[in-house]
Amino acid sequence: MFDFQQRGGFLEKYLFILKGCPFFSGMTEQEILTILHCMDAQVKKMDRNAYIFRAGESTETMGLVLSGSVLVIQEDLWGHRNILAKVLPGDFFGESYAATPGSVLNVSVVANEDTEVLMLNVNHLLTTCQNACTHHNHLIRNLVSVLAGKVLQWDSKITHISKRSTREKLLSYLSSESIRQGKLAFDIPYDRQQLADYLSVERSAMSAELSKLKKEGILDTQKNHFVLRGIPE
Amino acid sequence: MFDFQQRGGFLEKYLFILKGCPFFSGMTEQEILTILHCMDAQVKKMDRNAYIFRAGESTETMGLVLSGSVLVIQEDLWGHRNILAKVLPGDFFGESYAATPGSVLNVSVVANEDTEVLMLNVNHLLTTCQNACTHHNHLIRNLVSVLAGKVLQWDSKITHISKRSTREKLLSYLSSESIRQGKLAFDIPYDRQQLADYLSVERSAMSAELSKLKKEGILDTQKNHFVLRGIPE
DNA sequence: ACAAGTATGTTTGATTTCCAACAAAGGGGT
DNA sequence: ACCCCTTTGTTGGAAATCAAACATACTTGT
User: Chain A residue with minimal CA distance to B157?
Assistant: First the structure.
């Protein structure tokens, strides 16, 4: 772990990510730097498969992915892994637990590849120096947007996994991704095993269902690239 | 729909609920009244099964249940109903959509019984009169807690419905309710059909599974009262 | 180019869920 | 007490999923 202020290199490298992040929207570079100091920002470099949070812990800090990606997961002792979300650069994880004093993590967070994350203390934002920094109120307002967006994201995940059949889950997820990205041809951030874990189905059954959908001409796919064709008339 | 300020009756009747609500925590009665006016508060009386929000709409207002209860649901055209949550007096619904400009409701909200709800305009809180009312920043801070709590609630719902079998879903939900309420004997807010819709399983299969669990001595239940016994050794 | 490891697709039988129909139990109103 | 309506439990056949095994790409490192 590195102190953010002492490593100018990181700063120049990633400031453009922070500027594009909803949480820092409407702030100048200098204001962002001030805030990073207030929130005790620290950069962590994580190797692939390293745990950033473990279910059962509690935390005052939230994470912001700078490079690479992390998976928010739940896993039981027998290898079943449930993927709640993949978090890409510019997006947060753990913010809801950090913002809820006394809460216990119901999820784990692991690096999906070699990853750099920025850890930010939310309590410093919520409970101290409310008057001193005029930016704090602005940031808390931004935090509302971040949290509301997370709820909406969760709503749509629940939409997918509430479907009863593997086929419906696939089509629910794929069509929503297609709409979100605004095109019928798009990439998804998951490989087959991860997609199965995201949709809570068996990989082999899902693979079989994808083959069926291909044969029926409803979609085409190679690796993580998908093309939806709609239902032929 | 009634104007809140003109109906003192409602006010006295429900102010104690508002005072106990996390969103208004740390505020005096007079401050709450001021806020209600700022947020254009209006009381709505809804008959059982009436829709408060419909999927596809968008909204600037969030709802607070005063009496009765509402269900947050998703339904397809062929009667499949997925219950995301039951909202009891003192709790919010729709706040994430109201706090996300341009968002479209992915859920519907229906009155589960004859219900009174308070509708509050979130935009008035987030975008106007930030300087005038010192309470606003306090409220936005409280809104962060409300939203973070909603994410945690969603996390735990995802935990339950991600389980692969009906039995696991039941036990996941029931044990978490038991822990949440701090006792092995507890009531749940759902009848059998609603519980099945909440866990995304078939009612009849769930009923059969409950019978098995009873026979095995793992739990006991009559109507919506449950007693967990743990797995016998 | 090769080998080893990983990811994806396919198949199979056992298990589970779904679905519809029906039976039994409870509630409310007259 | 009676009937009607809702809720809950039970059953059985059809369909889907799970889980394990295997085959076939595709990667990666040497």
Answer: A158
Tell which residue, B215, B210, B219, B213, has the closest CA to residue B184: B219
Interval B148-177: pLDDT, tens: 999 999 999 999 999 999 999 999 999 999
pTM of the model: 0.92
**Could you check: is the Cβ of residue B167 within 7 Å of any atom of nucleic acid strand C?**
yes
Query: d(Cα B62, Cα B53) in Å, to the nearest integer?
Result: 10
Cβ contacts (< 8 Å) between A152 and chain B: which residues?
A: 96-97, 100, 103, 106
With beta carbons under 8 A apart, name residues in chain B contacting A158.
74, 82, 84, 154, 157-158, 161
Which of residues 164-203 of A have CB within 7 Å of strand C?
164, 191-193, 203
pLDDT in tens, B33-74: 888 988 999 999 999 999 999 999 999 999 999 999 999 999
Q: Do A96 and B152 make contact, defined as CB atoms within 8 angstroms? A: yes
Q: Give dist(CA A49, CA B12) in Å, integer.
A: 56
CB A157 to CB B158 under 8 A?
yes
Q: What's the pLDDT band for A233 if we cut at 50, 70, 90? A: very low
Closest CA-bearing residue to C1' of D10: B208
Categorize the per-residue pLDDT at A8 as very low, low, confident or very high, splitting at 50, 70 and 90: low
Mutate to test the interface with B, among A145, A162, A201 (most CBs of B within 10 A): A162
The integer distance in angstroms from the CA atom of A196 to the C1' atom of D6 is 39
Asked whether residue B231 carries a pLDDT value surpassing 70, the answer given is no
Tell me the pLDDT tens digit for each residue of A128-156.
655 556 788 889 999 999 999 999 999 99
At A126, the pLDDT band (50, 70, 90 cuts) reads confident
For residue A27, give the 3-state DSSP assignment: coil
Q: In what side-by-side order are the strands of the sheet with A219-222?
A: A185-187, A225-228, A219-222
Cβ–Cβ < 8 Å for A193, A202: no
CA separation, residue A40 to residues A5, A94, A120, B41 (Å)? 9, 16, 6, 39
Q: Is the pLDDT of residue B117 over 80?
A: yes
